[in-house]
Amino acid sequence: MYKQLTLLLLAFFGLGQGFAQVKEFRKDKAYPEKDSKGKYYTVSGERHGPSFFKKEVFSEVEYTPGDQLTFDKYHTVDVMYHWYEKWAAAFPEITDLYVIGYSFEDRPIYQMTITNKETGKDTDKPAAYFEGGRHSGEITSSESILWLTKHLLENYGKDEEITHLIDTKAIYLRPQNNPDGSNLYLFSAQRNRSTVRPHDNDRDGLVDEDPEEDLDGDGIIYQMRKMAVTEEEKKKANYIVNPDHPSGKLMKRVFAGQGDYLVFTEGIDNDGDGDYNEDGVGGLDLHRNYPENWRPDIGGDLTGRGYTQYGAGQYPLSEAETRSTVLWILSHPNISVVNSMDTRVPMHLRPPSTSKSEERMYPEDLAIYKEMDELGLSYTAYPWAGDVYETYSTRYKVNRLTGDPLKPSPLFGHGPDFGYFYFGSIWYGDELWNNGAMKDYNGDGIYDDYDGLVWDEEENGGRGFKSWTPFTHPELGEVEIGGFHPKFFGQNGPPWQLEDWARKQALFNLAMAQRLPELKVETPEVKKISDGVFEVSLSWTNVGGLPVALEQAKLVKIVQEDRVTLEFDKELMEGYENAKVKITSPELYDKTIYAGHTGKGETKKVTFRVEVKMDEEVTGKIKLSSTRGGFISQEITLNN
């Protein structure tokens, strides 16, 4: 319902030559990222804390598009949009570019459809949907969508498998689902993960009143460590210098009162509550805002005995960004495969998020998901693949602080759960990047900061970690500022690692798309039984890698049965028993043949019987319609 014609959008941006200029009935906004002279980045909304922050320019980011798209730097939203506009103009025969919705700050959210228009409409084909940028700071996911888009377009007509994919399927790509948050992240020191909608994270009645601050003016918000001196500080101290690493850089968490240090993110206690930086810009989580198994935000359970979900929003789909995804997805039930990506576990992350896989998933569907898990690992070699509730929550077996065994833990309002239980699809929420923990250097079975620091020192020139530097804090006194670079080592990798992570994740998504259902339809068979009596048969085989419907899709009725119709000119079929052309089988009034759901590798055949009371040649159309297998129409001829 939000879709706008590509030609209109391209004309608006000056790319649609020969078309009239089209201007939306919307007030032009002066977005801070477009103001090259402005020194501050301002965000929308009313809050008790600051709404403007010093602009920063990071060497790891490309702010102006170059002549060539390379992946040795991260790209701003506008740079990404530049390339999508350019591609839409260069590949009009296989792309449509449109605005799918608008963000909280009224920025357009771009989406591209890739399919060969000459072979049919995108909605008449099996489809996959891939999305990045939902979490504002987890920008590697957006880069993977950008890489995949470039890869598909540049290899169409050159690579046989990609050409076949685009000829027979539709690929929907959304690089930035949270342009507000991504812009704030890339143009300031703020490390936000959410949208910029004001939110009372600490439930103290004040909104966004305690953001982080770049105290030492280096453009990055690191950590602060404070040696416990007073008795009150010693009671709270819960960090020691990690003895496992000789540098003294790493901190290790211990129980309160057993440590030597207090550790905070860089900033001051703006609201004077004793906590640092606990209520910065925004706080809602777009990946907790889906309607499946949604729970109220913290404080929303009035009994105090139920479940809540931090960042859930006021109600399911309360956020424009999530709402645009879900409403569009529901209008495109031809989609079988989805990946809506984040950073930084890394993991191929799938449903269920609130129960064990065997408890709620159909065995047939779970088997397909497990195949996809293994497929993903074959491309990425991530340490993990599996469900959120059990595999993700217990991947390290024990709590490193307490020693207690980890238990499965629910996560509510999660995209993959919506994708499977509500929409009946293969839906992943993959996590890219690993905080530099490339391997288990100390053999403790855990990929942690120790491993990240060793890799940084050995392979990254030590650029990912800022050595602890003395600083006089206005409230705490003498502290040290340092730690891992939060943007380009913690949440995302250093730029020289970017393309490898973007590429291997994109290739997994491509591999899933190449396993979409594909109905290979044979030429209709027309057999004359006797004078004026014909049998018309149609056979097809699902040569794709997925059935046309998961068992869950059948349960929730997101797909219809595969069905075949035979159609002739309306006037030929008028007159009931005296009609010139009459379909006698099926014998029912409804002449549709319902063929169930075509499984992977399954062949089906249906047959109509037709009576023709005329000497002239009769033409008609036989049509196969499958919600996720596509729509195919072929012409037939009956000749007495």
UniProtKB/TrEMBL annotation:
Leader sequence segment: 1-20
Record flagged with keyword Membrane: no
This protein's record includes keyword Nucleotide-binding: no
InterPro entries in the cross-refs: Peptidase_M14
Cofactors demanded by this protein: Zn(2+)
Record region (Disordered): 193-214
Pfam families: Peptidase_M14
CDD domains the UniProt entry points to: M14-like
Protein keywords: Hydrolase, Metalloprotease, Protease, Signal, Zinc
Gene3D superfamilies to which the protein is assigned, alphabetical: Zn peptidases
Peptidase M14 domain segment(s): 73-516
Biased composition (Basic and acidic residues): 197-206
Family assignment from sequence similarity: Belongs to the peptidase M14 family.
Protein name, per record: Peptidase
